[in-house]
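User: Please predict structures.

Assistant: First:
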Amino acid sequence: MPNGEYQRYVALGDSQTEGLGDGNDIIGLRGWADRLAEHLAAVNPGLRYANLAVRGRVAGQVRAEQLGPALALRPDLATVVAGVNDLLRPRFNAAEVAGHLEEMFAALTATGAQVATVTFPDVGKIAPLARPIRSRVFDLNTRIRAAAARHGVAVAETGRQAISTDPRLWTADRLHASPLGHERIAAAVAQALHLPGSDDAWALPLPPHAIPAGRQTAGAELRWVAAFLGPWLGRRLRGRSSGDGRTAKRPQLLPLSATPDSPADTGQRNSS
């Protein structure tokens, strides 16, 4: 789209795209997709934006539950980011996950929409206990790049930048980006789309910070297991997900200033 003047932006994905880590369920979630929509609206105030992402969804669920509604909204820009929840499953299959992503790339680009996605950072540098799945991340990233190239999808290479593993870009659970992390992801996608005002400043390192001593690091790992990894594993064993019973926070295309609960929602639902 010349000058980045997109009219209809639809975001598909899981908790990162929903915005976990940037706000909360009481005050509302912002997240990188909302931040990208703000960048787009600065170029085109008439932008309408929908966010279909739901936390806990694996790539196959994103395709099955969100692709159809996304196509029905006729976006000229879509972002597709999924796969992290798959990476954490015991029976991870990189080819299968990449296949779901490619199906979404193909279907959306076939309508003429510009599509953007991201690669994932080295989880072993974010959470040392996750080092055993590093090879999964690298494999999936390679497949994402290949699928994106086949369909003309823009790729924000967050997986290749050292800044992506800075702990200040992540919340305490190490699974979701912090507000600063969401800000950097949005800027990376904006650059991948060549939006006006975007550049590579998102990849610049933050000022140096104190590195915890070995004993402090070990204690932090134990606390992380107790507070986050343990409950996550418990949900998996019970067949539960953090997204059970949840629906998309912004299922219809709306002006950025409008919310699904505002009076503007009814009119936009009828016109979509």
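Second:
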Amino acid sequence: MTETVMLGLIGDNITRSQSPKLHRTAGILAGLHVTYERLIPKDMGLSFDEVFEQARRSGFRGINVTYPYKESVAASVEVSDPLVRAIGAVNTVVFDPQGPKGFNTDYTGFMSAYRKVRGTENPGTVCLIGTGGVGKAVAFGLIGLHTREIRCVDLDPTKARNLAKALRALGSATVIKTYSDAETAAKGANGIINCTPLGMVGVGGSPLDGESMKGAAWVFDAVYTPVQTPFLQDAAHLGMTVITGYELFFGQGVDAWNIFTGVQLDHDALRVAIQGDDL
């Protein structure tokens, strides 16, 4: 009998998430029967904690966690990796008999996405807009890429300062600065990153207008529904190198799969297989 692996995603505004498709398809390629449910607390009439506990009690192997719960769930799981503890955000949880274990595959997924498009080129000076759960992970990924300078931007200055403090504590050579205004932080930056929900289906908008982006060499958008956000469209029109949120989605997804199952995958075959209509 084929083993069944129950997985799921907890988050808001996830009706168009491709995570179910990625993991179900990975299961087919690996010879496993994988179920993967979208779990939206407000639609279920439950709190995040209630949905989390329901998944645990229902026999789920694990869950992915997305906006806006990545930071809050970190307090409810055991995190053994000191780097993930420093990030303070969790996007992957395994329900272990000894208790739920938390991981973060956003930072590794971002590093893979960046290298796929820009290779070994240093990111330079980067304007990072949004210092929430995914922003934290991307910032740590930028440290891993030996970025020369990170400008942490958030409308909440306390959040930006807290991230800056955590990054400086790593003792890297990267210069860390904080800003409350994205336009100011973008001036003279080599790369611009959106880690806010702006541009997402159901949210819309963009963290910067095209005029404010001029002069940058590359951009990345953590949003991938839709893949071509207004932010990325403006950047492409200006001739910048574009790294889509889909690349982060794919990278974090295959890393999460490995954590959930430990089963190796042909990533190229998976990438081809998940093109097309939703499962």
